[in-house]
Write a structure and sequence with these properties.
By secondary structure, the chain is α/β, with parallel strands linked by helices. It has three domains: 3-104 and 151-342, Tubulin/FtsZ, GTPase domain (Rossmann fold); 108-146, no CATH class; 354-508, no CATH class. It has 19 helices and eleven strands. Strand 1 (3-9), helix 1 and strand 2 (36-42) form a beta-alpha-beta unit. The protein is globular, with a radius of gyration of 24 Å.
């Protein structure tokens, strides 16, 4: 199976990966091409809660996919998410996590560059290049004294120096080895353009890929890497920050930094350089909540935003492109593709019907299916387990023992919890995304849709008072599919609910 190596740089990279993981779990995937996804998270801020949350979510996805082994390649959890270690288990240089560990991340910037051992003239030049102050305004340390374990706090000049070490890391050397990265594989890079880590990391990583380098000093080149099919999403400002005199990060600087970075990208990423095969631009200047201004010490954990879904959709769009559209020669794209994202209307909290037709067709049904799956399992299943015929059907009973077993209790339920939390955050954010009425007491009201569309929904109640899933037909569908052959309880759960929710949406919702 060809692979897509997804480099997620900085906090924005982790947040886009979170949305991608939920979309993939629901079954939203490239429609004409199949790829394994290999996420590589690059962020020196190891305490970043966005990073931690996303890594935990991807581990849950991997475990659920591995244990359930769904029968339907187009159902829930259809795509493999792998670590680099899984690709070459015997390579001691590769970690078993999704995180790219930056050497020197626990030191100060001056320690990293060996400032104390420089000659006086080099010290003077360094002080000139990295003048100014950063991090806590009360402490006001120099840029040279930035503690890099919280990232580069909006200083891409610092980040570009540190992140240029990527090519010298053991992980990159293994990744860039001839035979590891193959011509059929692809690369996608997620980064923001208005901060420090992402704005610096993207061009550094891209430069080394297009040089086909296996290390800085090595003369060997990997032609497959140099001419790799590379896509990237550059996330422009899409949220605002509260004023904080103790933080060096100012929202007012976002636009200036974006303009400066775009000017640099024009010469070194797009334009004549043609370094990227498909470049996606996403941002939102008109909406956005005032997030807490956290310079890094607080852990940085932002609510999900619709722009991050758009970023995830850019990855899927890139993987749907044909190889013939992504040709490279000598590290230059033959026909670069540039895309932006738009909505049908300027909605504060858009739903499926505000998306373009292609994106609506891609995610409406999968997300609706998975949302129905989660809602049933959280609202109905625990109270009625053992009382529903399908839950006691043999073999592979989905009984009370299954509810208390490790798979459901420590893997499926936490994944469901984050999925619901993700939807809640999206629905309340500005710009948000509100395709569902999560508190609906009727399935006919669960999916937000125009009034004329609601008239076609035939899903009603039988009056038995079992909450939003009281309709006898829902259990009828489950009873029907419970009779099919499954290889395990886990497979039965995933496949049976995929088939049931698919039938409900097609027959009852006319989706």
């Amino acid at each position: 199976m060809p692979k897509c190596f997804v480099f997620a740089i900085g906090g924005t990279g982790s947040r886009v990966l979170r949305s991608l993981t939920h979309l993939l779990a629901a079954g939203a995937k490239p429609r004409n091409n199949n790829f394994d996804i290999v996420p590589i998270v690059i962020d020196p801020h190891n305490d970043n809660k966005d990073l931690q949350r996303t890594q935990e979510l991807m581990n849950l996805y991997k475990t659920i996919k591995g244990k359930a082994k769904p029968n339907d390649p187009n159902g829930f959890f259809p795509v493999e998410i792998k670590t680099l270690k899984e690709l070459t288990p015997d390579d001691p240089n590769l970690p078993s996590t999704f995180t790219f560990e930056l050497e020197g991340a626990n030191s100060t910037f001056s320690e990293f560059i060996g400032y104390s051992s420089m000659e006086p003239e080099n010290k003077a030049l360094t002080e000139l290049l990295f003048s100014g102050y950063s991090v806590d305004a009360k402490k006001r340390p120099r840029l040279l004294d930035i503690e890099m374990d919280i990232g580069f706090v909006g200083n891409p000049n610092v980040g570009s120096v540190v992140l240029n070490q990527i090519v010298e890391s053991k992980i990159y050397k293994s990744f860039s080895t001839v035979g590891f990265f193959r011509p059929e594989d692809r690369i996608f890079i997620i980064s923001s353009i208005f901060g420090g880590t992402g704005a610096a990391g993207f061009p550094c990583l891209l430069k080394n890929i297009r040089a086909g380098r296996t290390s800085i000093d090595s003369k060997a080149e990997n032609a497959a890497l140099q001419n790799a099919k590379v896509g990237a999403v550059s996330v422009l400002p899409y949220f605002k920050l509260q004023d904080n005199n103790d933080s060096p990060i100012n929202y007012s600087d976002f636009i200036a930094k974006t303009k400066s970075a775009l000017s640099y990208y024009k010469e070194n990423v797009t334009g004549k350089s043609r370094s990227v095969n498909a470049m996606y631009y996403i941002g939102d200047f008109t909406k956005g909540e005032n997030y807490e201004n956290d310079s890094g010490r607080g852990g940085q954990k932002n609510n999900a935003n619709f722009v991050e879904i758009a970023g995830a959709l850019a990855i899927i769009d890139f993987l749907e492109l044909e190889d013939s559209e992504l040709k490279c020669e000598n590290g230059k794209a033959e026909k670069p593709i540039y895309k932006e994202f738009g909505l049908k209307r300027d909605a504060a909290r858009p739903d499926f019907y505000d998306l373009g037709n292609d994106h609506k067709a891609l995610i409406e049904k999968p997300l609706s299916q998975f949302a129905l799956f989660r809602k049933f399992m959280m609202d109905e299943y625990p109270q009625k387990v053992g009382k529903m015929a399908w839950s006691t059907a043999t073999p592979h009973q989905l009984d009370i023992q299954f509810v208390n077993d490790t798979f459901y209790r420590t893997q499926m339920k936490p994944f469901f919890d984050d999925f619901n939390k993700w939807l809640e955050e999206l629905s309340k954010n500005e710009r948000g995304f509100a395709p569902f009425n999560l508190e609906a007491t009727s399935l006919s009201l669960f999916i937000n849709m125009p009034e004329d569309k609601k008239k076609s929904v035939t899903f009603t109640y039988d009056g038995s008072g079992f909450g939003p899933f009281a309709k006898k037909g829902f259990n009828d569908y489950l009873n029907t599919f419970a009779k099919e052959t499954y290889q395990s309880k886990e497979t039965k759960l995933i496949d049976m609910f995929y088939k049931t929710t698919k039938e409900i949406l097609e027959k009852e919702y006319k989706i």
